[in-house]
């Protein structure tokens, strides 16, 4: 725990791994020398970088677009998003932007889940339109769909892509 605390404070650094164990050293021996800035200024720089990376932010009751954000056409593609994708990792922001309430329910007791254990949002173009719960059976190399909700009209396109990525030889709806 002490090493983790020192790591968070920048005193020590993880410099490698041996047999699954982290190797530590003094951070000053690994990180380049940098200018030290006050915490308030660092927080402002981080907020600006986050705003630029995400493209929009809440400004009171409305949304503010970053000056460098582009407003071009979004490709008409369909994909599943990881629960940790930057588009939805801030659940409140995703709900406010897309009117799409998403929660990862793997730690919710089965009887209380609204959807499923590991459900992925479905992104079509610039819209979150539904959700799917895929599962790979490694023994049979089958990508199963345990459940799907919302607009699933283009589900097969994204399943084909996911199956190829996972090395699945076939897909099927689970019983």
Q: Any low-confidence stretches, pLDDT <50, length ≥5?
A: none
Shape, principal axes of CA atoms = extended
Measured on Cα atoms, how large is the radius of gyration? 21 Å
Tell me about the biggest sheet?
5 strands, mixed
For the largest beta sheet, what order do the strands appear in spatially?
Answer: 5-6-7-8-9
DSSP helical segment count: 4
Structural class, by secondary structure, is: alpha+beta
H-E string: HEEHEEEHEEEHE
How much beta, percentage-wise?
A: 25-35%
Number of strands: 9
N- to C-terminal separation? 45 Å
Mean of pLDDT: 93
> Can you give the helix content as a percent range?
10-25%
Q: What does the secondary structure layout of this molecule look like, with pairings?
A:
Layout: H1 2-8, E1 12-18, E2 21-26, H2 39-54, E3 56-59, E4 62-65, E5 78-80, H3 91-98, E6 120-124, E7 127-137, E8 142-150, H4 155-166, E9 170-173
